[in-house]
Amino acid sequence: MPLEHGIKDVDLVYFDESDLSEENEDQVKSQLERMFPNYPFKIDVKNEARVHLWYKSRFGYEIKPYQSVEEAIDTWPTTATSLGIRITSDKWDVYAPYGLDDLFNKVVRPNKRQITKEIYDKKVSRWKAQWNDLRIEPW
After folding, report:
1. Within a 10 A sphere around the Cβ of 107, how many other Cβ atoms?
2. Every domain of the chain and the residues it spans
3. What mean pLDDT is reported for the chain?
């Protein structure tokens, strides 16, 4: 199976509470697409400072505004995907609030901090269809 199997997009997140406009997010996305014209995956860009503005319309309930990218990552749907990497000058900073064991061991475990069982079940059913060797932990 190729390394890129099943990847539908790459999420790039940032935190800018000075501009919560969707237009600014779109501008950042367009800039990245121009920088990487042959990138093989869809680029999904989110300003984590503005997620609370659209979360209810997408998922059915309100959330409080995040105060940082790290706070947002803390709430992502699974422990394995709660992961951020920031490149600063000459080093890579990894933020993995639940560690990396689940990711490296192909364990999908719910992060119940914010999502619902329905959101988790929908996500893992799609993933299981893509990667049949995942170990899915029940809600």
Report:
1. 15
2. 9-136
3. 94
Record the tokens describing residue 46, joined without a space: 């989110």
Locate 100 and state its tokens: 């990396």
Name the β-bridge partners of 44.
11
CA nearest to 50, candidates 23, 27, 76, 77: 23
| Angle CA 76–108–124, to nearest 5 | 80
Residue 99 confidence (pLDDT) above 90: yes
| pTM recorded for the entire structure | 0.90
Instruction: Give dist(CA 22, CA 53) in Å, integer.
Output: 10
**CB neighbour class for 20 (10 Å; exposed up to 12, middle 13-18, buried from 19):** middle
Name residue 95's beta-bridge partners.
84
